[in-house]
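Example 3.
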Amino acid sequence: MILILKSGATDEQIQHVLDRVDALGLQAHLSRGTYRTIVGIIGDEQKLTEEPLKAIPGVAQVIAVMPPYKLASLDAHPEPSVIDVSGVKIGGGNLAMIAGPCSVEEEDRMHRIAEAVSAAGANLFRGGAFKPRTSPYAFQGMGEEGLKRLRDVGHAHGMPVVTEVTDPRLVDLVSEYSDMLQVGARNMQNFALLTEVGKSERPVLLKRGMSASISDLLMCAEYILSQGNMNVVLCERGIKSFDTATRNLFDVAAVPLVHQLSHLPIIVDPSHATGRPDLIPACAMAGLAAGADGVHIEVHDCPEVAKSDGPQALLPEQYAEVASQMRKLAELLGKTISPLPETIA
Amino acid sequence: MILILKSGATDEQIQHVLDRVDALGLQAHLSRGTYRTIVGIIGDEQKLTEEPLKAIPGVAQVIAVMPPYKLASLDAHPEPSVIDVSGVKIGGGNLAMIAGPCSVEEEDRMHRIAEAVSAAGANLFRGGAFKPRTSPYAFQGMGEEGLKRLRDVGHAHGMPVVTEVTDPRLVDLVSEYSDMLQVGARNMQNFALLTEVGKSERPVLLKRGMSASISDLLMCAEYILSQGNMNVVLCERGIKSFDTATRNLFDVAAVPLVHQLSHLPIIVDPSHATGRPDLIPACAMAGLAAGADGVHIEVHDCPEVAKSDGPQALLPEQYAEVASQMRKLAELLGKTISPLPETIA
Amino acid sequence: MILILKSGATDEQIQHVLDRVDALGLQAHLSRGTYRTIVGIIGDEQKLTEEPLKAIPGVAQVIAVMPPYKLASLDAHPEPSVIDVSGVKIGGGNLAMIAGPCSVEEEDRMHRIAEAVSAAGANLFRGGAFKPRTSPYAFQGMGEEGLKRLRDVGHAHGMPVVTEVTDPRLVDLVSEYSDMLQVGARNMQNFALLTEVGKSERPVLLKRGMSASISDLLMCAEYILSQGNMNVVLCERGIKSFDTATRNLFDVAAVPLVHQLSHLPIIVDPSHATGRPDLIPACAMAGLAAGADGVHIEVHDCPEVAKSDGPQALLPEQYAEVASQMRKLAELLGKTISPLPETIA
Amino acid sequence: MILILKSGATDEQIQHVLDRVDALGLQAHLSRGTYRTIVGIIGDEQKLTEEPLKAIPGVAQVIAVMPPYKLASLDAHPEPSVIDVSGVKIGGGNLAMIAGPCSVEEEDRMHRIAEAVSAAGANLFRGGAFKPRTSPYAFQGMGEEGLKRLRDVGHAHGMPVVTEVTDPRLVDLVSEYSDMLQVGARNMQNFALLTEVGKSERPVLLKRGMSASISDLLMCAEYILSQGNMNVVLCERGIKSFDTATRNLFDVAAVPLVHQLSHLPIIVDPSHATGRPDLIPACAMAGLAAGADGVHIEVHDCPEVAKSDGPQALLPEQYAEVASQMRKLAELLGKTISPLPETIA
């Protein structure tokens, strides 16, 4: 931690700063420059994150030297983590291909979609049973019945399933029926929820909030990891920006940036990032080329009757086409699309 | 609802669109322009918010004519709502002056701060007992003991109290000890929490999320209203932007914009909006001048030892100064700072 | 300047850093922390702004201690500057009230608008003769004839005039006919233009770019100041953001922030900041309450036939109303709306 | 054009709207809905872009049906344009590989860099002689001597050259010495400059402004095209956002979005988009995978002494590595890196 003092900081203020550092059991290193005095603090920076150092009179700026997350950092685990989702591996060269409808819908439709995406190479099946909708009047999901249907259909086609959990009271229920828990973008900083999924034994797909920096995202992963659940996969799904031509702004640089900072895998979700079927294939390819550990795409066989997010769904044949391109790109990059497990535990 | 069709939309596609509208029990009005065909839909737009009209083949754009919220709109309630918080009125010319520390802390400190802010004219006392912290290693609040202390101190000084609730499982507990429930910015779209506070009898202070449009904010208010709790006060507390000189970007235009769209009161929180004590007084005045129904400011008597957000706290004497200016401005604007209730129910 | 070295920086890299600092004639101060080594550089930081210190192997981060602007900073001029525009003072408690149509239009209309705004208390008349339009097919302004008309009309009503210059080749011409040169938001970083207006003897109204930080804005002012023209007034006119309900986002905190960093006056332009007549009065009041040194508002007597920006113009009677409110607020704040000059030099 | 009227629009207001449309020689089509009246305008929308329709009393919203640009649109030219830069083709499957230092520097260094990047497969050489610097005290470029050196070195190694022009007065000079003119991000809406380069015979590389939507970018291209210069290549180089971990935010979805709207080629510049050498290769690959018509990367053989932007330069060997990967990806995508011309005209 480095403290830059104000240009007019008095000797008394400087002494007070040194006393405060001393009282915290750390060592201060004073450096008087031409314009400013600087105090370097030597010792465990973690002790200081709690301290309102910037509120000490005479302090102008506080600069952290270490990242605020520990378990999520490369220092804690220098090799890429490989997360196992009921037999499907994500990270370290293994790619997740997550596909399925936005919401769980009719049973025969679910089977049709599952069959199509698994034939195209998807290895994880998705669908929402508890939907976080911006309108209280919109379809809120099928609930427990939907969870059961998602699992039954996914497993029938050999794919583990991932579904969103939106409420700490539902973590046990959703864990029972799914292979991976999704925490959505709007709940990224729902710390009560993060704490509960951190206690679950299911791997977690943590989506980046629409105004979250990568550091914010990794701090939320840290919440989960600090509860003992080390199986976290991050997901870039678009952030807020000023151009309304797309639903969100796809931040593809988040992929190599996470890989510079953390051992956790990161996948991309071009469906939510763009909200436009005509842009999804190009962005899926861009994500993979940037090093993503997987791609999440929403697929529906009749978008105009979908119960949610129809306008951004790919048709099964469109998914098959981009999946085929992604397979070739994966090969060029020396990566493997994880095969389906022989059985799902 | 207006549908703008793609330039090459075929007659078959147009007929299919008309059939879909008809099937929904609504009337379509076709208009063929020089370049594009347009379909106006006549009838209850609410029926359509659920329908993925944009996914119908041939449809290029869907334009809503009505806002997506009903109960929060001026149509539902053309006069400004006046919310009563245990005797303190907010809205319709009545101003809330919310002040207090970020977190509930030691008892004597709480009394000192309460005494100072109430002497300066504050009419609601605040403090967090359950803190949504970005780091899992940071102080998470005193919990139930903190709730009790906040209430006892606030009421001892004649002020109703407001405190944050972060978890749907805690709504009953927090309602028991507080006069107003705060939903924080990071939980603005935590729909499970919104639903629970919507069932509570306590008024709700709903803070705008950091990447929420005003329409998003009003939709979240709608969640609470639609559960039967009509006592919602909105709060502008800064949104994400690119200039790192301030913690967030204070969107003062949100105040008159909300007043153009909704009957709900809106207050401003320059503490979180700027994160800088040197900018808080100017922004507090700006908020009032823009028509805000109140101002929320964090105050601490020794910021350098505060358990959270110390660097953005005003000292009691700084608060007294800006409160005095705000009183004069309120008078100029013909508004009233709500007096303290005779007794707190 | 502070250099934070990478965690694995070798002794050789550290020595190389020290040698580089030494070669620049500055003194280095080494501090080895628990996790990182830090190099404080003592001496004239300005010498270093040119140097790509971050590209030195082993350097992780470079932190500037001083702001990158000098002449614009409070250190250079600790008192607020008062700018004189042909007799109208701006800054240090003197308020500019700039009003007029977006573009210079028909002569009788110009007289009608000038009469109305001057009766309402405006002290500077505005109008564009060279318009930076987003479409090449849109009205580009009346050119020199417009300049002449603006000056003649403004001066006839006792008001100095301000108008935009968009091209370095036009600075002399525009200077001849106007009392103050405006550099628009889209040209804020047009350094060729800044250099030319820096050589002019006319005061300059420098509008903030839509994606400029306050530091960026002050650097652009520095371009003008460094050419010898010390008469620069800044203008907050809205920045880009994600909510499309307003044209731009009005950053009212920019006003006190500039006053913390610079001696230059700053005014606000709620017309461009919001693009909505129904929000302009509230935002004008907010700007003044935040300490702005003036307010810029576009006024047109028949917006539906205006040659540009009609939809955001106030009617003369609307302007008169907000001007009357602003006068009362100015009095409360102890500020003076600059009176019209006896004669315009 | 569609006009949505206010909910309380009177019959007189509606009639006035119809009269105004009629007076413009266009046909109105009235549609009274349950809540709102809508007026569709049939005829040449271009006639209306100038008209402040939104300022007509009773009008709530104006919705354009056609894009505001014509020459840049796919309607004007349904096939991808192929731009020829002194023999190097860009667009329609032909890729530009632009590389070189940020600024033109010493002659031997220029030769070393040119040799390295041309060996790695670059087909256009870049370097700035007139630099738009955020600080007036920073190196402003070598001027005409730099132009001459850039051309001589580039051509000696068989590569046409591209360099920035920042001032309308310099367009002729820069055109004389270069094969392609660059308009930088800060000058994207410098309409005087756009008009001048529109009169030049040199192809133009138009960089996207940091707060420009894709529609804004295409409107600026339209300025150039409307002057008769049809050889415009667009460039995505990052936009402003809230995460400070990267210099800008790389908007890779801009690539397929431009291809949906326009025939103009678009390349990507991961150097400015990220500002971080450790992220540039991944983002270069992402850009190509998304369909970009080329990649622009800054290369320097000793970044720590570079005259500008050293910290974001790739070393020649790093460039060679990513260029080799890009070649393989181009092959997979069925695209061709344009070969060097036999002679440069």
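Chain D touches chain A at residues 211, 213-215, 239, 241-246, 249-253, 255-257, 260, 273-274, 278-279, 281-283, 285-291, 328-329, 332 (CB under 8 Å). Chain D has two domains: 2-63, 83-337.
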